[in-house]
Amino acid sequence: MAKLIDGKAVSAKVKAEAAEEVKVLKAGGITPGLAVIIVGDDPASHIYVNNKKKACAATGIHSEEYALPADTTQEELLALVKELNEKEDIHGILVQSPLPDGLDESAVVEAIDPLKDVDAFHAYNVGRIMIGNYRFLPCTPAGVIELIRSTGVEIAGKNCVVIGRSNIVGKPMAMLLLHNNGTVTICHSRTKNLKEICRSADILVSAVGKAHFVTADMVKEGAVVIDVGMNRDENGKLCGDVDFDAVESLASHITPVPGGVGPMTIAMLMKNTVTAAKLQNGIA
Ligand SMILES: Nc1nc2c(c(=O)[nH]1)N[C@@H](CN(C=O)c1ccc(C(=O)N[C@@H](CCC(=O)O)C(=O)O)cc1)CN2
């Protein structure tokens, strides 16, 4: 039976470390500040933003929420980003994804000052990650690396398979596993022999967004299985991509949903906000 990877416990540790750093910064007169922009009424996004605010409060980070109506124009959104780029008490800016249809998300992300881009979605930061000389790591993939480390399983030399090629998770995830000396394969909707490739994985990361996508016949015995999916099953219950009940008996370690990768996303955001405050004050 697999050991459960406790995302809540690991994220609490990361947040506690960030809180210690905030204390030191505050003693030196610097309060890290995070601005979160949310556009529209997506209920899940509002829950995530609320949780980000709560994590900031618990960590000692100053936070500001900018909740804009769904009919906000691209120009209005860009003007807000510009204003926040210039605000000295704001060190991190993030735009909650997804934006409503009609808004150009990548243009908005590109308008964020790369030094304040705590999601690490800006092309400048993506490029720095690619060459392995980064300031921020994207929160979800960085959180996954912390979860794998918490198991004690070495990434170096392991066959790592990432299912999904999104800019937010799949691609940076593969890059971070590579930086940790994993042998990495990215699978996607056009991949042939998906089952066989997944079965070769010592570390399997699924970021597909489909309930029950990863079945037991796709998992090698003893594999570390990380579930980045955030879906609703046929009964409306929150679940990941992995058929947890079937895979649990095969894997050596597995993340639950909820309580696995999700809490890490927010914890790594706290860490990135602290890094941003240090960078902007010439400390890091
Ligand atoms: N600008 C960004 N937008 C989005 C990101 C991101 O990193 N930056 N990631 C996701 C959403 N997300 C954070 O924004 C996020 C998703 C889920 C969780 C989480 O803690 N999930 C819980 C369950 C929550 C629930 O009950 O619904 C868990 O897995 O235990 C945190 C953050 C897309 N947008």
Automatic annotation (TrEMBL):
Pathway(s) this gene product operates in, as recorded in its UniProt entry: One-carbon metabolism; tetrahydrofolate interconversion
Chain residues that bind NADP(+): 164-166
Signal peptide: none
EC number: 1.5.1.5, 3.5.4.9
Molecular function as annotated in GO: methenyltetrahydrofolate cyclohydrolase activity; methylenetetrahydrofolate dehydrogenase (NADP+) activity
SUPFAM superfamilies to which the protein is assigned, alphabetical: Aminoacid dehydrogenase-like, N-terminal domain, NAD(P)-binding Rossmann-fold domains
Pfam families assigned: THF_DHG_CYH, THF_DHG_CYH_C
Record's catalysed reaction(s): (6R)-5,10-methylene-5,6,7,8-tetrahydrofolate + NADP(+) = (6R)-5,10-methenyltetrahydrofolate + NADPH; (6R)-5,10-methenyltetrahydrofolate + H2O = (6R)-10-formyltetrahydrofolate + H(+)
Residues in Tetrahydrofolate dehydrogenase/cyclohydrolase NAD(P)-binding domain copies: 138-280
Alphabetized InterPro entries for the sequence: Aminoacid_DH-like_N_sf, NAD(P)-bd_dom_sf, THF_DH/CycHdrlase, THF_DH/CycHdrlase_cat_dom, THF_DH/CycHdrlase_CS, THF_DH/CycHdrlase_NAD-bd_dom
Positions of the Tetrahydrofolate dehydrogenase/cyclohydrolase catalytic domain: 5-119
Top-rank taxon, per record: Bacteria
Keywords, in A-Z order: Amino-acid biosynthesis, Histidine biosynthesis, Hydrolase, Methionine biosynthesis, Multifunctional enzyme, NADP, One-carbon metabolism, Oxidoreductase, Purine biosynthesis
Task performed by this protein: Catalyzes the oxidation of 5,10-methylenetetrahydrofolate to 5,10-methenyltetrahydrofolate and then the hydrolysis of 5,10-methenyltetrahydrofolate to 10-formyltetrahydrofolate.
Quaternary assembly: Homodimer.
UniProt-listed NCBIfam families: PRK10792.1, PRK14186.1
Family: Belongs to the tetrahydrofolate dehydrogenase/cyclohydrolase family.
Protein name: Bifunctional protein FolD
Lineage: Bacteria, Bacillati, Bacillota, Clostridia, Eubacteriales
